[in-house]
Write a structure and sequence with these properties.
The chain has four helices and six strands, in the order E-H-H-H-E-E-H-E-E-E. The protein has about 180 residues and is of the alpha+beta class. The two termini are about 35 Å apart.
């Protein structure tokens, strides 16, 4: 191995998913203890008000789009490591998908929980995105104005970095992780 490459990931210069040469790498979580992890992501599928009404009443030609979106989001969360090459396969404890109906949108909220050595933000984002895309696909034949937008992690907890929430104004409220007791 070249002297300028730090394979340990302990170099302060190091971006977790890049080595010193800029090559992508999976972060080594082998020595980290498993902790409870949780992440919530949300996004919106913007559409015409008439399309929202059809989604809300379950009267789209394809049936209950929200049931299909819920199942698709849950399946997607479980497949995240197969879709994104630097993600670790995780044993997810819970995946929830909730929907809120607005005048011209359907909001998707995905929550993911696990006890593992790395976070579940990517799983929550994947679940939210695929659920939104499922709604989009189910409505595209009747509404060409559809947009999936504003997919973002809203909160996360667990792990060394602690917990945080994203406020409506875009500010982040961080709560540091408790210090480990000294041995």
């Amino acid at each position: 191995m070249a002297d300028d490459v730090d394979a340990s990931g302990d170099d302060p210069w190091d971006f977790p998913h890049l080595d010193r040469r800029g090559n992508a790498r999976m972060v080594d979580v082998t020595g980290k203890p498993p902790t409870a992890r949780r992440a919530v992501a949300s996004g919106r599928v913007v559409m015409a008000p008439e399309t929202v009404r059809l989604v809300a009443t379950g009267t789209l030609p394809g049936g209950d789009v929200l049931a299909a979106a819920r199942a698709a989001g849950q399946l997607a969360a479980k497949q995240t490591a197969d879709l994104l090459p630097l993600c670790h396969p995780l044993l997810l404890g819970d995946v929830t998908l909730d929907f809120a109906i607005g005048a011209d949108y359907v909001e998707v909220v995905a929550g993911v929980e696990a006890t593992d050595r790395t976070g579940v933000e990517m799983e929550a984002l994947t679940a939210c995105s695929v659920a939104g895309l499922t709604i989009w696909a189910s409505c595209k034949s009747i509404d060409q104005t559809l947009r999936v937008e504003a997919v973002a992690v809203q909160e996360k907890s667990g792990g060394r970095s602690g917990s945080w929430t994203l406020g409506a104004d875009g500010t982040v409220r961080h709560v540091p992780a408790p210090l480990s007791p000294r041995a």
